[in-house]
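WARN retry 2 of 3 for item q-0093 after timeout on previous attempt; input resubmitted unchanged.
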Amino acid sequence: MRVSVVGAGLGGLCLAQGLRGAGIEADVYERDPAITARFQGYRLMLSPVGFEALRGCLPPRWHPLLDAIVGDARAERLILDLRLNRIGQLGPGRTGTVKGIVIDRHVLRHLLLTGLTVRTGAALTGYDVLDDGKVEARFAHGDPATADLLVGADGVGSAVRAVLSPQTTPTDTGARFVIGRTPLTERFATLEPAFGSKIAGDGVSLMLGAMRFRTPPKQAAEELAPEVTLPDIRDYVRWAMLLPPNGSLGAPTAQEAALSRMEGWHPDLRALIEQADPDNSTLLSIRVVEPRERWAPGPVTLLGDAIHATSPTGGNGANTALRDADLLCRRLIDAVERRQDLLGAVADYERQMFEYGGEAVRHSLAALPAFAPAPEQTR
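OK item q-0093 returned
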C-alpha cells in the first residue's frame, strides 16, 4: 500500500511516522517552499488521548526522548486584572487547577520529520480517482503522484477538501489574537500565578503559559536518540493577546500592537512583551471548520484542521489531529493485514473522526467566550 499525505503539519507527519513504522509507504507533500518557511514554535497542551496517540505513531525507541522533551503544566485558571490581582475564576463552574503535558510545536515537528522525506513546494492543484481505484494527485510543480489513498492534512485552507467536500468551508469567528514567546527568565518566573489564567484589560485579554522542558531538547536527543536532531530551545513563556472581534494590529508589528494596548499594566507584563522574540510574534485569526456532511466513500480522506479546525481556546486542535493520525494508521494496518478492505477501513476512520472531531469544534467554540476580551471601560 502507498499513501500520499498532503501537508507536513503535526497530523500529517504523525500519520507518516506511524505508517512508516508499520511498513506502509507514505509520501509527504508540503506546499511551503521549505520546511522552515514558517515559524511553528509555540507551546501545545497534550491531553492523555493526544499524548498516547502520538506515542502510538512514534517508534518505541523514541519514547524515552519524547518523555524527556515534554513539560508538566499545572496552573490555576483565574481571572486577573492588569495589575495581577485576582478578580474571578476562569470559565463557568471551573475550580482548582488544570494539569497536563506541554510540548513545543517546533521541537515536536523536528522529531516527527526525522527519517521522512518531504517534497516541499508541492502545492496540490487537484486529483483524479483512476479506473483501478487508485488516486492521482497533481501539483503546481513536479510530477503527479499515484497512491492507494490520498490524505488531506493540509490545514484550514485545505486544497484536498476544496475538491473532496467543497460545501465544507471555514468559518471566521471574528476573533483575533497576537501571539509570541519570551525566554523564561528569573523575573518572569514570578508570573507563575498568571500562567493558565486570563488577564483582563480594557478591550483585550492576555493568556500566558510556561514551556519548561524536562530536559533541553537538543541535549535530550544527543543523549537518548543520536539519529534525531532537535532545536536548541530553552524554557520560555508563550503569550497570546486576544483582541476585540475583527480587531486589527493598528501598529507596524505584533509586538508593538500588544504593547500599545497595555497602558497601566503591571511592569512585569509589559516587560514580558518588550523582551519577546519579534521574529516569532504574529497576528492570527481564529477560523473553524466543522465536519457535517459526509462525502462519497473513496480513496481520499481528510485529517486534522482540514476537516475539524478548532478555536485554540478549546485546547484540542493538535490533540484531535494526533488522534486522527493514530486512528487512521491503525485502520490502514487492518487493511494491509486483510482484516478489512481499504475503503471499509477509511469509512470506519471517517465515521469515528466525524463524531469526535465535530465535538472538538463545538467544545472549542463554547469555550471561546470565557477567554474573550473584557469590554472597554471609560477612563
